[in-house]
Amino acid sequence: MTTLKPWREVAIPHDDVLRGTFQQAEFAADLSAVQQNKASEEYQDARKFFERTFITEGMRLLLENVVKRLTGKGGDPVIQLQTSFGGGKTHTMLAVYHLASRSFPASELRGVEPILDNAGGSDLPQARVVILDGTALGPNEVRQRGEVEVHTLWGELAWQLGGSEAYDLLKASDEAGTSPGKEVLVKLLQQFSPAVILVDELVAYVRQLSHENSGAGSYDSNLSFIQALTEAVKQVPTCCVLASLPESELEAGGERGQRALEALSNVFGRVQALWKPVSSEEAFEIVRRRLFKNDIDETVVKATCNAFYEVYAADPSYPNETREAQYRERMERAYPVHPELFDRLYQDWSSLEKFQRTRGVLKLMAKVIHRLWQDGISDYLITPGSLPLYDTEIRTELINYLPNGWEQIIESELDGERSEAFTLDGSNHFGAIQAARRVARALFLDTAPSVSSKANRGVEKGTLLLGVVQPGQQTGWFNDALTQLNDRLHFLNHAGDRYYLDTRANLRRTMEDRRKSVSADDVSAYIRASLQRQINVTMFVGIHVFTSHHDVPDDASLRLVVLPDKASYFAESSDSDAGRTAASAYLKHRGEQPRLNANRLIFMAADQDAAGNMRNQVKTALAWKSVVSDANEARLNLDQFQLKLARQSLEGSDEAARHTILDAYRWLLVPVQSASAGNVGKLDLEPRQLSSSQSTSAEIERVLKEHEDVITRWAPIHLSNILKTWYWKDKAHVSAKSVWEDFCKYPYLPRLSNISVFEQTLSQATLTNEAFGIAYGYQDGRFVDPHLGDGYNAALDGSVLLVEPSALTKQLSKDASTSPIVTDGGEAHPSTPEGDDDETPPTGAKRPRRFIGRVQFENSASAPIKFKEVYDEVISQLSKDVSTRVTISIDIEAHSQAGFDEGTQRAVRENSKTLELLESDFEDASSI
């Protein structure tokens, strides 16, 4: 980045900043000092004042309002300036003072001419300016003004407006300490206008007054005067009042000050127009104008800011807003200070009660720039990482706003030759750019003002990097520095992707020590318990988590076997891995015996690449569990904040462990076996990857159904094809039970979810004569009780045969062609095949196709129990065949001797409508 220039070669500080001769008072505008011609030149001289003043949007609107008011062209008569401490109220009043005083032509005041043009006040007259400064005027002081003694605020107002002539109008009120009436004030203002009345630090004056009438008037009479003044100014079109009130109770000063602030706010609130405070973007310009000279090469500024912008655009780890064009514009306006430094000062540090929003930033930045200039720091922009905390004066300035304890933390860990960060820079590759110290400084600036109750305490890594990286530097160096600081610092806390400093030593070191002692067995037990809670797939009769093959039953039930974390699956290799090896052992054996029903097992395994992260996260959760447990049992001494933090860390690590476990267990291993033309291939395990976008249980079921690894509904034609391929070769029938048993054993056959699917397939097959027929035995060359296409509801038992349709059709056709025999009585009877006994039902006998039942419950209390019995014993039997349509109707009839009251009728009618009853009505007793 040789084409870029350091900020010190582009933006030259003002001489007082370079010399370090500034004092805090120089940043505090003083109205009375200017009025008495005792202020420093930059405040006293209107030309130099506007030279160093950035006219904010709020100041511009206010100055335009004053111009309109003084020229009689409208404008608000009363404006209250209420912002935070050090927010620029008095500075704005000084701008009004210099504008109204007209000590210099507008053409010599930078930025003023456009204001006059916009307000139509190019002929702005010289106005009388009154300054009522509550800190300069003592309530118990009698002020000698020429030959006149002034006692009150209203006496001071009159004297400043027109000397003894004006004072005579209010002399009686001033001497008596009673508020003048509105009409007298209107007369005074009309006679001596145009006028601007600047009221500053009024709370500081009023809070000293008692309710008794002293020389300066009573508390109540002063409030009455302010109210009368605001009302009077409204009636004089060439007068206006600007009053500053503190924003916070701290600035108001004690209970009396707070009462005075509330009372004055109520008075001004009736007529005031609020002043728009300084925005963060305008604050950039205020600091830049006050601390740096104006001759800055904008070409270099744009090149520098564009270089930073390109760094952010190329790396997604930085905050999203840094990749927007507006952020580049922010950098240009803030140059040579990085916007991140301003943001932290104005957003975080300004939230501290004692930190002055504009004045405090100016004071701090003047010291920072002076020290960086002295030390020859050649950064392209001044960032949070540039902050020289090693400077005693700067460090003291900052920790003055913070609780006790930060001094030692900065010296021992963050900055200076005795700090841990300094040591790290001296022993690592990133020390050439002071990466550890820069990260530590940014951490301090970003997080020291935060409070423990803040919802998301700390700073994300991307924001932290934003405050330290300069173009041409490797981000990885700062990442390395942060990692080592996180391992070494006792006061740096880390939660997720957020980091923060605290005056309390962190618990992480305790947790890390305990983490090292967590055993592999403890990790496996945690993972097992988590999976047992989270996996519940209804298609499996049994879910066996980390269960040995000895204890997994060998039966016809479908079972999911979750393999131990060490038996992980490696997707990148087709060779045998721990997961495949473990699953194969289950398929071959149950204990010492060979396993028969291999087609009833499906396996779930952790991904080998994710298993390490899973175990690490579980170790962290177990370590935090140990910390919290010992704290609860008083074996570890923690204060309430630390205990809360430990519990939050336990909760967060538990949640993270749960997610990483599910993320790791992303593979199903399904036993498969290829087969064609009756030839069977080698048993293998087919991997199925689970998506993490859904619940794991639902995803397992979806994947197995989608790949037809488990079949929950099966058409008879598929079973027919299986029978043709594997069973109807030597004979035209096979035992249905043996087919089901084969389905449980051999992975080359379909894997049905349960025996009910098989039975439903048999029942559906009886509705057609194309798939297969059903018989209950084969004796003497004939099928016993044959059924084909007659809708017979077959139940699976040992005698059921699945018969090739043509073989069954042949027998049924032969039976149908047998001639009837006529007896002596003239009745015809079908012939009975020789050898059949009388109990055998006639072939093709017509079966009933409809069932009608009716039940009545006399006792309404027992009706639910009785209905359940009817459902379980009757309706469920009728519903076993999926082709059966069952319709259930409920008749409700109730008789009341006393008659149903209105409430009962209304409730029943509304509920009947909601439940969509086909018929519901009440009848009159006479109709029963």
Strand order of the largest sheet: 2-5-6-1-7
Count up the domains: 4
Strand count, sense and barrel status of the largest sheet are:
5 strands, parallel
Shape: elongated
Topology, number of strands: 24
**What would you call the structural class?**
alpha/beta
Q: Roughly what percent helix?
A: 40-55%
Radius of gyration from CA coordinates = 46 Å
Contiguous helical run count: 37
Beta-strand percentage range: 5-15%
Corresponding CATH architecture of the largest domain? 3-Layer(aba) Sandwich
Mean pLDDT across every amino acid position = 84
Q: Compute the separation of the termini in Å.
A: 102 Å
Low-confidence stretches: 821-845
Q: Class of the largest domain in CATH?
A: Alpha Beta
What CATH calls the topology of the largest domain is Rossmann fold
Structure write-up:
The protein has 928 residues and is an alpha/beta fold. The chain folds into four domains: 244 residues, Rossmann fold (3-Layer(aba) Sandwich); 224 residues, no CATH class; 177 residues, no CATH class; 112 residues, no CATH class. 46% of the residues lie in helices and 10% in strands. The protein is built from 37 helices and 24 strands. The strands form eight sheets. Strands 2-5-6-1-7 form a five-stranded parallel sheet, sandwiched between helices. A five-stranded mixed sheet has the order 11-12-15-16-17. Strand 16 and strand 17 form a beta hairpin. Helix 12 packs parallel to helix 14. The longest helix is centred in the C-terminal third of the chain and has 25 residues. The radius of gyration is 46 Å and the shape is elongated. About 3% of the residues have low confidence.
